[in-house]
Amino acid sequence: MPSAKSFLAQDLSNFFEAAWFDLPAEAGKILLGAGSENELRQAGWKAYDAWVNLANGLTNALYSDPLVAESTSRVMEAALRLRQISGLMAAAFFGNLWPLIGLPTHNEMVALREELLSLREELAAYAARLSATELPDAETGHAGTATSSAFQSNGYRPTQRTADSIRNGKPNVADQ
What we know:
With 176 residues, this protein is mainly alpha-helical. The protein has helices at residues 2-32, 37-63, 66-101, 106-129, 147-150, 163-168, and strands at 151-154, 157-160. A hairpin with a 2-residue loop joins strand 1 and strand 2. Helix 1 packs antiparallel against helix 2 (37-63).
């Protein structure tokens, strides 16, 4: 263990030398116009490397102590158990509360979304089968090409333009 203490003492002296002497000296040279930015950058990196080495050495020395290692492992194990218990309690509480107040569950929402998607596909297939004479074109007023623009989708809600709204030039309520 004496070598570890001398190693930490060496890291500590390297850090103080770089942070308290080298870095301010290079900054002072820059202010006086005698130094270069490259030398200041090198002094900064030297201080950074010394700090990282010191922090790494202190962390290694701290966790090599059996008392700290044992207490840290117990705290981590307790935190993981508490997280598991709180997750189970939340699932039990909300599992019974959700149906009680009438809110849909995740599985019900997934089933509803799948049903809506299948209805949207059926509606698109129906729109594709419509004859060209049933819906007039919105721009010309003549029958022919309106089947592709009759059903439009804007994300989650499809908007349907009826033949009357196309003929009269009225906008769809969902578009407003």
